Amino acid sequence: MKHPIHPMLVHFPIATWFLATIADIASLFTNNEQVGWVAGVLLVIGTITALFAMMAGLLELGKIDAQSPAAKIANQHMILIMTSWSFYAVSLFMRLNGTQLEQPGLIAIVLSVIGFAFLCSAGWMGGKLVYEYGVGIQKDLGNHK
Ligand code: HEM
Questions:
Q1: Would 144 be classed as within a structural domain?
Q2: Who is most buried in 37, 61, 91, 140, counting CB within 10 A?
Q3: Structural domain span for residue 118
Q4: How many domains would you assign to the chain?
Q5: How far apart are CA 54 and CA 138, in angstroms?
Q6: Could you tell which of 59, 86, 87, 129 is best to mutate to test the pocket of ligand 1, judged by most ligand atoms within 8 Å of the CB?
């Protein structure tokens, strides 16, 4: 495919994970159990949609010259996002009782916040790939600098 679909797919996990972390933090300040439940649902959506974004990302990764400086940034981006995914997945797992979502405990909330920190740094690297190295938008993929 000429136009990369990765940028189209990343919005779903970014938005849902971000809102999940906000809801997790909010759940610390309210007795409303729905807030924690909403955070759990958002985590489920984010964790699943991220897998699709990862598949599309791997396709883009395969197009980058392995010897180029962009390849190093792409690998860092991938490791950071996989770390983020792992933190969010464990945070989700900790609030699951069978198929039921329970209120998040403090550790699950802390993991969600750490997942968000990794998400931000991964997003920074993703932006670097596109706006500094021209990956996905220029013909000589990743051969800059
Ligand atoms: C195996 C995992 C992944 C790999 C190998 C990968 C690889 C890439 C590559 C090569 C780019 C630059 C070209 C393009 O935009 O298509 C990129 C950009 C980006 N990626 Fe990923 N990615 C992965 C997973 C993810 C996930 C799960 C997210 C979000 C949760 C994400 C967020 C971003 C963002 C925000 C950009 C910048 C897009 C833009 O500004 O247009 N990536 N990624």
A1: no
A2: 91
A3: 6-131
A4: 1
A5: 21
A6: 129
> What was the pLDDT predicted at 145?
45
Q: Is the CB of 74 under 6 A from ligand 1?
A: yes
pLDDT number for residue 139: 61
Which pLDDT score is estimated for 4?
81
0.90 exceeded by pTM: yes
Residue 38 in any domain: the answer is: yes
39 vs 56: CA distance, rounded Å: 26
Q: Is the CB of 26 under 6 A from ligand 1?
A: no
* Residue 24 belongs to some domain of the structure: yes
The b/e string for 32-58 (b: 16+ C-beta within 10 A; e otherwise) is eeebbbbbbebbebbbebbeebbebbe
Average pLDDT of adjacent 10-residue blocks, the chain of 145 residues? 86 98 97 95 98 97 94 98 98 96 97 98 97 82 50
